[in-house]
Amino acid sequence: MSILVNENSKVLVQGITGREGMVRTRLMKDYGTRVMAGVTPGKGGQEVYGVPVYDSVKQAIEECGELDISVIFVPAFLVKDAALEAIDAGVKLAVLIPDRVPIHDVLEIARFSKQKGARFVGPNTLGLVSPGKAVLGMIGGRAESAREWFIPGSIGVSSRSGGMTSAISYYLTKAGLGQSTIIHVGGDAVVGSSHPEVLSLFEKDEETELMVMFGEIGTTQEERVADLVSGGRIQKPVVAYIGGKAAKSGTRFSHAGAIVEGSRGSHESKVSLLKQAGVHVVDAVADIPKKAGQLLKERENPR
Amino acid sequence: MARLFEYQSKDLLKKSGIPVPEGIVVSSPDEAAEAAQRLGRSVVLKAQVWATGRAEKGGIQFADSPEEAHKEAREMLEIRISGLRIEKILVEEKIDIRSEYFAGLVIDDAEKCPVMVFSTMGGTGIEEIAQKHPDKITRTSVDVEKGFREFEARDLIRKTGLSGKTLTRVSRILAKFYQVSQKYDARSAEMNPLVLAKDGSVYAADCHFVVDDYAVFRHPDLGIEVAREFDRPPTELEKIAYLVEKNDHRGTFYFFQMMDEVGEKENALGFNGAGGGGSMMSMDAVLDQGFKLANYCDTSGNPSAAKVYRAAKIILSQPHIKGYFASGSGVASQEQFHSARGLVKAFFEERIEIPAVLRLGGNYEDLAMDILHKYLKDIPGEVEGYGRDNAPEFCAQRMKTLITENQFLPHKVRPIKEPETKEDVYSFKTPTGEIFIQHDQCRTCATQGCIKACAQNILKLEQDKPILSISREEAEKGKCTECLACEIYCRFHEQDAINIHLPIPGLKEYREKVIKKQKK
Description:
The structure holds two protein chains of two kinds.
Chain A: E1 10-14, H1 19-31, E2 34-39, E3 47-48, E4 51-54, H2 57-64, E5 69-72, H3 79-88, E6 93-96, H4 103-116, E7 119-121, E8 127-130, E9 134-137, H5 143-149, E10 152-159, H6 162-174, E11 179-184, H7 195-204, E12 210-216, H8 221-230, E13 238-243, H9 267-277, E14 280-281, H10 287-300
Parallel strand pairs in A: 1-2, 1-5, 2-4, 5-6, 6-7, 10-11, 10-12, 12-13, 13-14
Antiparallel strand pairs in A: 3-4, 8-9, 8-11
Helix pairs in contact in A: 1-5, 3-4, 7-8, 8-9
Chain B: E1 2-3, H1 6-15, E2 23-26, H2 29-39, E3 43-47, E4 60-63, H3 66-76, E5 80-81, E6 84-85, E7 89-93, E8 97-108, E9 113-119, H4 126-132, E10 137-141, H5 150-158, H6 164-183, E11 186-197, E12 202-204, E13 207-211, H7 236-247, E14 252-257, E15 268-274, H8 276-288, E16 292-293, E17 295-300, H9 305-315, E18 323-328, H10 336-350, E19 356-359, H11 365-375, E20 383-386, H12 392-405, E21 425-429, E22 434-438, H13 449-453, E23 459-462, E24 465-468, H14 472-479, H15 485-493, E25 498-501, H16 507-519
Parallel strand pairs in B: 15-16, 15-18, 18-19, 19-20
Antiparallel strand pairs in B: 1-13, 2-7, 3-4, 3-7, 5-6, 8-9, 8-11, 9-10, 11-12, 11-13, 14-17, 21-22, 22-25, 23-24
Helix pairs in contact in B: 2-3, 5-6, 7-9, 8-12, 9-10, 10-11
């Protein structure tokens, strides 16, 4: 199975003729993602790595048939329009790659996608990958490295840091532990699919047996995961690491989310609530593969 | 997040029709006396400073006459509040207060919408009030498509027991407050206290407005210099760094200083992280080795070589750092050879004498390592490059060893050299700089390797000399990606005939000041 994207997903790239759009279209195609069409207003009729370019999302759907996912590479100030256009045209998942999207734009996208029953990942995300099936965005950099770093398996990975999404998955791969889907939820304060939403999808996914979460200070995402686990709505084992222990309140470390507001959002609050709920919180990133391997073994051979 | 001072926030409120006390911003005792005179009644002097609880720290004083205002202003301009100097004072008419309320807008990350909060118990300690008297606080989520309308405000406020004219007045203010928060892309905003005066009128007596960093570009009228979150006004070097970020959209460059000054004997590093999570992990590793960090810096999101070069030049403008430590997640998706080339150019120009540990793991890390080791072996400082299979903890230990071996030599800041312009030089502009090719030196070139080094294929040979194969405009508009490969090839394999000038506005002058201090 895997979540959100698989080998059958039909993908659109908005901003396909830009610097990042072109490079990442190539990565996605090389990896095996079914990139059906691209959109750049005013550049309809061109081709990028064999992918036809259209002037609008509706036109792309008219020509290519239904599209499941749109990966958006337009400049930050145009992201809102691009996302609304895709969702309005019936795309069910929008992946917003750019950094620095205004937060009120994100709220508008959230409002509209809720109304339309769509979902979005990001903004400020590296994207996601279902190993061996498809990659969306820029995770892995090149198809060659994505194949080397990520292997298919039963661990769902959800992370708020882009670099750590790859790092954790790579360490799992090195320990022989494959992944169902790897997702960078995005580094901003408000994101389309936060940890609790992603982990709930993993809970329903047959292939996923265990989840790994890289959390950070700021926002309430990890606290809400703790609620889901203690309420019994997440029953599969969760291994978590929370970054930002040394961070002072008010220091941002590049992530808009990493702002400590009151006790909610602090390192202590997250770790203690997660531990109380029964989540396996580890103190070092290097301990994640060890703990995950041990838990998977226990699941296979219950005592 | 870009914070506004109280007087700026109140300006926005006033423009949107929310009553605020009459006031004048001053920056000297004479101006304060004049302001008190003009207001013609008892006044309050309020220090304009990004610190909470300023009243207890001497940041709020009352004056009944212009003379008193003069005296209070003089004292206030001399103190520091939470370590911050006071540059401006807001002189306001004193309001006879009957009650203090709280009104605020925050963004709820779980519901993904704005939330309006109101309480009839305002003033200092709103967090404690919220805990002790939850019944005195009401909140409601806002549908961004509909906005927050006056009847919704009334419905919210009536739950706290307000009635009559006060209810309608406060509701009107709240609806306007939501509008101004939207208009100026507030990340958070609060009026605390919102006061009911003895005469029944309602004023925003204090206001904190924080503009979303990512939306600052929509509001040039606010005059925000650095659209980054700081709990203090930005330093001179941070302003220089922010200009670099603003003028080059390729990737992220974020820089702030964590120490006012690094002492000659202090064990502090220049830090160059990549990505928030990876940087935090790497910082923890160096802190564990007993280091301090002179600065935090993030070059991620596939930055251009030019951007990383400028970041390194800025980090190396900090005197007395003992080493240069670069490390991110270690498994980066960005093309690490760009970072490697940026660092090579900067380190070579600076001839750094301090050691550097550069953990550039991830996409194309082998190429990145090759570039670092090949080209930085002859500079005075020891440089070690590592990839994804070396943990930050190991790299931090290497940093410690190298610094010890280097006998804790403090970094010396050097002057910025302007490029020399000689005759027979071919030049063209790049997106953020200019490339100079010394054509007379090309005569003795055996390989013409610059043509092959150029990944964009925009150079060609004409009479054995490299020139653009595209128009100058195309090069400047971005066909030249400033990958620095031609310069590095020519410098290390051939004639050193190519010089890419990547100016950093303000850095030359900044360094001159640092060097003057260094000599003392």
